[in-house]
Amino acid sequence: MDKIDRKILTLLQKDATMPVAEIGRKVGLSTTPCWRRIQKMEEDGVIQRRVAVLDPNKVNVGVTVFVSVKTNEHNEAWMRKFSGVIEDFPEVVEFYRMSGDVDYLMRVVVPDIAAYDAFYKRLISKINLTDVSSAFAMGQIKYTTALPLDFAIVVDDDK
Q: Where in the numbering of this chain does the HTH asnC-type domain appear (predicted)?
């Protein structure tokens, strides 16, 4: 990856629908070399997919809940089972295995508290959990899908 690739990624993270010709113009490349770079980054898995970012309120999932899970089960089989259970819940938009006091952390989006309660009841009916703690977000201060590229390893292309 070089500085031009990083510029391309910055532009794509802001708007993945931007035409390749425009991206090329903004980074100082013609269309074909720019397209080749994007294709290479897709092949290498740097660009995993291109998606539309939706307004949660307009699709009726404006309530965000952070769900902390503790378990007494710390083995591969249970972890696979839990992961499989979570895959069947579209409300879970992020799911992490954690270090520290909490074993797993989920970000859940729902329309309201009643929908979260229904989610919770379905969850505990499918898997045994030691402790579940829920924190409702009162407001969103920052949200982005753009990853910081300052840490990306860049080949010195000035040589």
A: 1-64
Distance, CA of 30 to CA of 8 (rounded, Å): 13
Q: Which residues of 80-118 are buried (b: 16+ CB within 10 A; e: fewer)?
A: eebeeebeeeebbeebeeeeeebbbbbebbbeeeebbee
Q: HSE (CB half, 13 Å, CA atoms) of 36? A: 5
Query: Dihedral angle at the C-alpha atoms of 120, 125, 130, 136, nearest 10 degrees?
Result: 0
Alpha carbon distance 129, 119 (integer Å): 14
The model's pTM: 0.88
> What b-and-e string marks burial along 126-146, b requiring 16 or more CB atoms within 10 Å of the CB?
eeebeeeebeeeeeeeeeeee
Q: Do the Cβ atoms of 113 and 75 come closer than 8 Å?
A: no
